[in-house]
Amino acid sequence: MNAMRTMLLTLLLIAAPLRAQTIAPADYAADAQSIEKLVNEDYAYLDRFADGRMPMTEKLRAEAAAVGDEKQLIRYAERALTLLADHHAITGSSLPDSWAVFPSYADLWVERRGDAFVIQQVRAMSPAQREGVREGDRLVAVDGKPIAAAVAGFWADLGAEGGGERDGFAARVLAAGKRDRERRFTIQRGPAPPRELKLPNLYFMALMDRPVLQFTQAGPDLVITFNDSLGHDATIAAFDNAMARARAGQRIIINLTDTPSGGNTTIARAILGWFVTKPTFYQVHSLPAEERQSGIARRWVEQVLPRAGKYHRGPVTVRVGRWTGSMGEGLAIGFDAIGARVEGSRMAALLGAIYDHKLEKSGQVIKFPTERLYAVDGTPREQFVPKAAASPR
């Protein structure tokens, strides 16, 4: 890696801003202590927890009271949000040795099955795939520690307990690793001897020069592949350019299998708008925080509108997988609502829509799901399963 790339990577990793104003240590502690209340007021999925409250631990409450500067606040916020076991709950700023954001900077989807931690899916074109890791392999150790012990230690470090889906969450985070170092883990396939691997973390991918999308004429089909670009301003124009090459009635294949970072509804509606002739419902929103505050439930349906001079009459197939996340998942349920074929596996199952929540004293931001999202038939977005398996490429 040359000096310029090294410098860029360093700037990427150190996301915490420098602040000109002076903030008292007590203010940082107050912000840390406010996170529990904020989550209990605004987190959209409190029903995931037995008592309908954030599963805060006494260990972390003691840590919050001891926070005295910006770095400590960022670290505390990361640790507190981890208790939610929600890959969609993250901090706005981070540190060089923070855990990688999952699934954006991860290449192994790990699930606990009985006593084993099984790799359910491997990200295409990733370091893990290039090293021959395959679906069905077992993750048996991380950094030399047996995976069950590493997962138990992950939760014990927070004063919490794992179990069930929480252990799969922890294993995925451990496999994604820390942002500033290589990953070391042990993989085993069937009865074969375990295999030790050393892999780079995926933050170098942020510096890769990739177009926002690619399109190819593949036999009778036009295939449009998004490169994790559903939040990029240039994506709309690039998609319009690709669609301008479509033949009348041609099948369009929309490949969303590498969209783990999500995006925004403007881009999603611009894409969907090519395939409708009238205003059409594509996803449902609800805001639990408003019901908690007022006792009155709020739910609304979002529409996609036709785009002037842009319409394609022809079949559409949408491909999804575990690295289809957030707005990618929203696009999938939207395409399903307008009659497209959605094929592949379960998606990232990222919960709801995240809002930015600014802490009062420091201005630091934490992000977590504040809206719940549903398909138009009422299926929670995170539970949507494609009706068809992936077809041969």
Percent strand: 15-25%
Architecture (CATH level 2) name of the largest domain: Alpha-Beta Complex
Helix run count = 11
CATH-defined fold name of the largest domain:
2-enoyl-CoA Hydratase, Chain A, domain 1
* Largest sheet, strands/sense/barrel: 5 strands, antiparallel
The helicity comes to 25-40%
Order of helices and strands: HHHHEEEHEEHHEEEEHEHEHEEHEEE
Number of domains: 3
- Principal-axis shape equals globular
Summary keywords:
single chain; 393 residues; alpha+beta; Pdz3 Domain; 2-enoyl-CoA Hydratase, Chain A, domain 1; 3 domains; five-stranded antiparallel beta sheet; five-stranded mixed beta sheet; 11 helices; 28% helix; globular; disordered N terminus
Q: Can you give a write-up of this model?
A:
The chain contains eleven helices and 16 strands. The model is unreliable at 1-20 (pLDDT under 50). It has helices at 3-13, 25-42, 58-66, 70-82, 127-130, 147-156, 165-176, 235-243, 265-272, 288-294, 327-337, and strands at 90-91, 108-113, 116-122, 138-142, 145-146, 183-188, 195-199, 213-218, 221-226, 251-255, 280-286, 299-304, 316-320, 341-344, 353-358, 365-374. The protein folds into three domains: 3-91, no CATH class; 108-206, Roll (Pdz3 Domain); 208-383, 2-enoyl-CoA Hydratase, Chain A, domain 1, CATH 3.90.226.10. Helix content is 28%, strand content 22%. Strand 8 and strand 9 form a beta hairpin. The two termini are 34 Å apart. Strands 1, 11, 12, 15 and 16 form a five-stranded antiparallel beta sheet that branches. The chain is of the alpha+beta class and 393 residues long.
